[in-house]
Each structure stands twice: as structure tokens, then as C-alpha cells.
Predict the 3D structure of the following.
Amino acid sequence: MLLALAVWPAFLSPAMAGRFEAGSFTAHDTFGNRNPVRVTFQQPFDTVPIVVALADTAGNNSASIRITNVSTTGFDELILEPDNWDGQHIAQNVHYIAVEPGRHVLPDGQIVEAGRISTAATQFGSGVAGTASWQSVSFSELLPGTPSVIAQIQSANSETQSVANAPSRPHITAIMQGLTSAGFQVALDRSQANSGPIPSSETIGWIAFPGNLSGTFPDIASNPVTWSSVNTGATIRGWDNGCFTSGIGQTSSSRIVVAKKISRNNADGGWFRRCSLNSSTIGLRVDEDRDQDNERSVASADAERASIIAFSRSFHALLEPDISASKVHVTFEDPFGGEFALPDAVVEYLITVENDGNAPPNHDSLILTEALPSSLSLVVSDFAGPGSGPIQFQDGSPSSGLSFSFAGFGNFADSVDFSTDGVNFTYTPSDSGDGTDPAVTHIRIQPAGFMAPNTGTGATSFAIRLKGKIN
């Protein structure tokens, strides 16, 4: 008779499997075609991603890039000009980043989070009617430090003009401030454009990477991609003032870089355009409308800050853990010295958990639940020496990167909990007189940390050993 031990892995607050993409496209010349043009992703997404883009400075007129109708296969692009321009613009080179919404874990354990918020909160310059306000955005959980965040309007609910036959009215962009590990503030920025109605509620998409850090992850072909992030100081001034260079946190001749404003020091508002790009730096300047005046300058005291997110090249990636669990009985020790499943025989079980994916599950999220058959009583004596407890944790090779602790029965801050019904894991086992506790029906094991991914040397793993006595 073989006693089956039911075991299953689960996740507490898991990070989602996530698709990422970065690339570039040419936003079309709207003198010839004044309608939006579709951009197709390199690979389809599983859920509709957030898309954030940065255009270059081609064309002297004020201009911004609009992203709308985002789907799992692509999005629409259209260059907009604000009032006091004719509305048509020459072609521009645009870099974009697309990330599926949710909380994602990179192979090194760094957290990326992306999301959307609908808001009518608006910022504006002098001479524009309305009440200025900000919308607060909270991350699903605290991030380890101040992130780098980029944001882009994903809708066009407020538009009243037939763009690009005419300039955009009201011309709005996304603006952020107050980045912390808990979240940030965001708003629609009218800058100085006072033509058109007060904006309706728009959807702003945002992407947060760990701030001022770098790392690598594999693309869908398992080739490495380097990412980096930089939060600059208040050094970026206006169109009329020049081109202001910042490092991108890495060196690559094929880099893809997107930067967005994370301050609103200049009362006129404005948005970034890319004025230079080389293997290790990006040049930015603040563009703005001419609705109240003709200047497009920013005083040095009002210079703006940027969040910059860069990748070593164009790519599409699917980052996800691949967790599996297997179980075997290792030995039988029957009362007669044999290896038969007789009453009072002690059975040792080995449970192996592997991650063959290219990313870890979320921090402290892996839970292993084991259901004991009714004919088996848990051996509660120490498995591997005094104080070790009835459960043995063995790290694998390659290492799982997880840690395990047992601080005693009744301690609910360690890695092991016990249950008599599979629902409430607050039971404190005790020796019934033969070294077992037949009341235990389920064991829950929750190692701490990130379970490392397969980085090309094989699946990471750990093993759990425990014993039971046949009733």
C-alpha cells in the first residue's frame, strides 16, 4: 500500500507573468496623412499593455506624440500640435516602452509595476481657467526605494478638434511629481493652452522601474537585454535654451530610451522632446505651446527633473515563473525492520519544488501546502537534530535563494504552520505519546525571499522532508 501525500504550490500576492516590449517607430508626416496610423507590436501581448513614448525634436513647431487605441497587438500614433500652430507636423522618430499592467518581478528580484488611472485632475499655466489639482497613485505594495516612473495619456476623450487637420484643443500631456516608494502624483497638463474646454477624464498609463539601477533579463529568444533607470536633477530647460544631456545608466549603440517629466517647476508646464541620443546619453528639452506668449524657455531656477528608462536594444520579453512540485516516498521503516506499509511503520517523504521560469514569483509569496492522508500521523519529533522541528528544508543546486526557519510549535512568524482542517493554520502540534500528532491534517510551508529563476544553468529548486506514521 502506497500512501499518497497531496501537495500543491500556491502564491500569496503573486507577481503576474509579464510581457515587456521596447522599440521605435517613425511617427508619420501629417501634412500628407492627417489620420492616426497603426503601430504593430513585435509580438502580441496577453493583456492590453501601457504604452509610453518619447518623440524627437524634428520640426520646429511645438509638438507631442499621442498614443490611443492600445490593444494587445498595437496602438495608434499621431503627432499633435497645440494652438497657435497649424496642426500639421513633419515625421518624427519615436521610442516607446510597453508593459502589461500589474506587478512584475525581474530575474534579479527587482520589481516593476505598471498601471492605469482615470483622472480629470489638471495642471495649467497662467491665464488658463479652472482649478488646479493632482491625482494620487499608490503602488500595490511599497517598492524598495524611489522608482523611476514614466507616464503617458492613453485616451483622447477631451479632444474637440479634427486633428491633425487642426491643432489639438485642449492640448494636454501627462505630468508627475512627488515620486516615493509608495506612489506618486499625476495630472493632465494644459501648460498655457487656454483654448478648448476643461479636460474630461482621461486614462493615464504609467510604468515604474527601480530608480537609478540597472539589470538584465532575457527576451523571448533567451538573449539578454540590459535595462537601466535614472532620475535626474533639476537640470532640463526649455526649447529656446538648448539641449540638456543626461546619462542613461548604460552604454549601447542600439539603445531604446524614454524619458518623462517628474516635476512641474516651471509654471508654463510643457513636455519633453528628445534633442540628442548617443550610446550613453540622451539630450532633452522642455517644449511648450505658444498660446499665451511666443517664448519656449525655462529659467535655470525652474529647470525640470526627468525619469529616464533605457534598454540596450529593441526587444519583446515574457517574464514568468514556472513552478512545479513533485513528491516521492523515500523509505518505509516497519516495526519488523522491513520496508512495508504496515501499521506503525514510519514513512519519509521527499517533496521537490522547482522554478524553471525566467523570473521569480513575488517576494515571500511561495506557499507549499501538504495534505496528510487520514491513515497517517505526522511525526513531530525533530527531523535533523535538536530544535530543527519535524520539517527539513534542503536548498537545491542551482540554489533557490530562499530561506527557511523553524522557531518552535506555536510560533506563527516562522516558515511552518499546521492545521487540523486545511483552513485555519493556527494549530500547535504536540506529542500524543508515540512521537506523532494524529490531529494534524495539513502542513503549510512558506520559505522567505524570492525563488530564483532559471538563468541558463537549470531550474532552481529546494526540497522538503517530513515523516509520518501509519495508523
Summary: The chain has two domains: 6-14+321-470, 18-318.
